[in-house]
Amino acid sequence: MIISAPTDYRQAAKRRIPPFLFHYADGGSYTEHTLQHNVEDLAGIALRQRVLKDMSSLSLETELFGESMAMPIALAPVGLGGMYARRGEVQAARAASQKGIPFTLSTVSVCPIDEVASAIDRPIWFQLYVLKDRGFMKHALERAKAAGVKTLVFTVDMPVPGARYRDAHSGMSGKLGPARRMVQAAMHPFWAWDVGIHGRPHDLGNVSDYRGHPTELEDYIAWLGQNFDPAISWKDLEWIREFWDGPMIIKGILDPEDAREAVRFGADGIVVSNHGGRQLDGVPSTARALPAIADAVKGDIAILADSGIRSGLDVVRMIALGADSVLLGRAYIYALAAAGEAGVANLLELFEKEMRVAMTLTGARCIADLGPDSLVSGINHG
Ligand code: FNR
């Protein structure tokens, strides 16, 4: 299949990987309205075309927490990301660092943190979930520190997992019995897997020794439900602060009041996110939520945004709406599934090219030039 647009990778991934894995990434929660709105609202935001401004020199570079980024993009934490290609998180991290942008490793990664961190030159970011076992969290933070991680992404929008019905249909969640064995058998020819799914319990990176092995995929989603902590509150963040002195980003903010709380708490950044429409279906798209949050806290805290970004134009839109930088989730997972490291590298090239065109035609010479003035006011379809 010929890849010419970033969105081509979705179809390519669908052809290449087993259905349960494709739908785990592609799907959202409940009726998937928020998932759909994330993409549609963002794509519907009207950019303001400007001409004849001598746009011969243009820079996409930016900086977050003293870390330089070749463009305002980081790869989002994606649980089980390592299943989408062999040692998938390592491949994605390589492509990101080659391009000069950060890679974030999920708490529920496949590859261990030290393996990913030592595969590239720039420090990776580490994402932490709140688990009932605080000892585990402390241990995870210690491992992250030892692996040279500086930036912590603390995800707060998953006190309980949202219901993802596609996963139930595909056999990704729930007890599968024979269906599961069929899926596993079907997967053998495609992967020389050593990721643990076939029962090597030691290898599920960060979660391996934890309350029953999700590696056996008895019921991964149920495992999340048992171990994640609905009692999470701002106090837990204070507890984490004691162990973490580097930059801390709170991921999963969707309301200006919570954004203000994050500033009061002393967070270094927030990710405006609805978890890619995978948690509470029915909440606003991030394109819709972001402007009010930017009004409330822009300049007080770094604002990152994700959910629904499928093109370089979408990145430009998010920045114009008030983000300092974005995270890519599914966009890079599809590319990873379709073509591994080379796929992610090519995807990032395509994003860069699209951003350059969009910035040239909106008259923005640098990332700081993008703002509300880059949009046609009144026609924000969000
Ligand atoms: C995620 N996301 C996520 N977030 C997080 O903080 N920790 C995690 O382990 C995961 N796992 C995960 C798995 C899969 C398959 C997906 C698609 C997403 C959410 C992710 O970081 C990000 O917020 C969304 O993916 C952004 O939306 P888009 O870009 O995928 O639409």
TrEMBL record:
Q: Which residues bind glyoxylate?
A: Y24, Y129, R164, H275, R278
Q: Which domain of life is it from?
A: Bacteria
Enzyme Commission number, as recorded: 1.1.-.-
Q: Which residues form the active site?
A: H275 (proton acceptor)
Record-annotated membrane-spanning stretches: none
Keyword presence, Cell membrane:
yes
- What is this protein's record name? L-lactate dehydrogenase
